[in-house]
Amino acid sequence: MKSLLQQIQPIVQNTANAISKVIQMEVEVADNNFIRIAGTGKYAENIGELMNAGFVYHHVLQTGNIIMIEHPGFHILCKPCPYYEKCPEDTELAAPIIFHGESVGVIGLVSFNKQQTEHFIAHKEWMIQFIQKMAELIANNLENIAIKNSSKTSNLDTSLNLAKLERNAIKKALDLVDNEISKTDKAAKILGISRATLYRKIKEYNL
Fold it and tell me: What is d(CA 41, CA 27) in angstroms, rounded to the nearest whole number?
């Protein structure tokens, strides 16, 4: 039987694509059977396959806690991994996807180069808040599956409003620096975009 996340795979993949576009980092999602449900970049190559190095995700599923690893491959959780001390990832942030009090999957944000990593570390508190909201967004879509399985009459909506996701991310960044001087500059740095792009987006989304 397909896992809950497998049943909304198109939504999960669209969400991963949207997140990656907004924050310029790679995203992957796995279910509680360690099947990769969605991914961007190099993770897009193995969607639907069993992960062979999901030790960090196993910890997140077991504890239900978010975890950030600034040096993957050298963390104690990575010790059983075949890529221990030679992990291609620079940083990793993983959060549980909670549905009805149970961890049904994990969403991860990963950096692979110096620029991504510096951006990641500089704004990790915002990244943590953001990934938690994205985990909630995916979990909210699982309600459609619960209704469908009970009534057998609902049609699953596989669309994702990228504009809404982008608007919410920008608003969250602006709210985070609301009382600071040069808040627009700081919000642009958090989002990893230029000030000109942020001004254009603020006007576009009437923020």
Answer: 8
- Total residue length of the chain: 207
Q: What angle do CA 170, 17, 2 make, to 5 degrees?
A: 125
| Spatial distance between the Cα atoms of 70 and 88, rounded to a whole number of angstroms | 12
At 67 the three-state DSSP class reads strand
CA distance 25 to 171: 19
Within 10 angstroms of residue 150's Cβ, the number of other Cβ atoms is 9
Q: CB-based contacts of 159: which residues, under 8 Å, 6+ apart?
A: 11, 14
d(CA 109, CA 91): 8
Going by C-alpha positions, the residue among 132, 69, 70 that lies closest to residue 95 is 132
DSSP 25-52: SEEEEEETT-BEEEESGGGGGGTTSBPS
Per-residue pLDDT in tens (0 to 9) along the chain, 207 residues: 789 999 889 889 988 988 888 788 899 999 999 999 999 998 898 899 998 767 889 999 999 999 999 888 788 888 887 777 888 888 999 999 999 899 999 999 998 888 888 888 888 888 888 888 889 888 888 876 656 655 544 444 444 566 777 787 888 888 878 777 678 888 887 777 788 888 888 888 888
